[in-house]
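Collaborator request, handled under Task 6.
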Amino acid sequence: MDSVLKKNFSYLFLLQNVNYLVPLLLIPYLTRTLGVENFGKIAFAQAFVTYFTLLTDYGFNFSSTQEVVKSHDNKVELSKIYWSTTVTKLILAFAGLIIFLLLILIVPKLQQLYPVLLIAFIAVFSTILFPIWLFQGLEKMSHITWFNVVPKIFVLGFTFLLVRQQSDYLLAIFLQSAAGFLSGIACTLLILHRKTVKFYLPSRSDIRVSLKEGWHFFVSGLATNFYTTTNTVVLGLLTSNATVGIFSASEKIIRAVINLFGTIHQVTFPRINKYYHESKEKALAFGSKVLQFMALGTLVTGILIFVFAPWIVKILFGLPQYAETIIILKISSILPLFALCNGVMAYLIMITFGLKRYLTRVVGLGGIFNLLVIVPAILLYQAEGVAVVAILSEVVITIYLLYIFRKHAIRLKWEWPVSKI
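Structure tokens returned to the collaborator:
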């Protein structure tokens, strides 16, 4: 791993760690202070708002990153990419807000939770102000890391200081949402202060191009949502807030692991694109190393989670309130292995090798499978059923990805022992 890649990995690793470790540090306090019911309300609200975050992000975290990689030395083109992406995200956010408010008006379950849902929606606007795609493409992650880290640490302190009883659950989610929004404001001010880009007023044509470039990534993200966030939302609609709280306790741990390791393919995405323009063989060798490292790391982590699940749940959430979380966490311990290896194969290798057209089919297959079985699984097995369905959906995707690789003669190169990336 060269010095630039190592530096960017370190900063993004720190960034993702804070994004997910701060909530994990808060969990032991919040689960005990707010209770299972209110913890479930927050989990449901955050899961539901994820749909609108996904709409606003569209597919720009990949499509705009690719464009930035191509134009990082051209300030005029870079400015065009930045403002076209930002304005498009703003339009999508307001369109999402209208849909969001209409759903609250017509769905009884959402009407009951409207205060927590409205506060959670702040996260949607935070994604506009925090263009991680720009700095990933420029391979300058240090510029935004501290603006993200410091507010999260303040959230930790203010939560312990201000959230004192079960009725404080609205304050708890507000503090979490506000941190992301403040990070975004600070990041935008940094871009303007350093004159990273010039002002550019995007045309309708620029916005159409942005939407077109991100379409495949958006659809794939939407389909992925069918077997991730949708599971929590459906569980909340068919069962109780307490059941959502039990499931979400396990989900937060598993998603923290996925996002922690996901740092690797976020950092290596710009680099494999550069290697591809030099040599397909070099890019494939690099992608294979990333995949092998990911598989080994997540396998070991999954085994540790399975073995120590009772202690993890006891320390983070408390017993006996969250006793049912133990079996869900054990079932889900293998999920990071499939989810992250699928991410490397689909987003890192398949897209780089010009097979973006398959992305929608791949995640669409997993999403359709999930939608077909999730309701019966919840009705029969509740939260445990959700955990099993999530794993089976990833296995279906793995099988289809390997079929695509074989069809297009993409032969992964395995080495043992694993060499450095």
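The cover message to the collaborator said: "The first helix runs from residue 3 to 57. The chain has 17 helices and no strands. Please let us know whether this matches your experimental observations."
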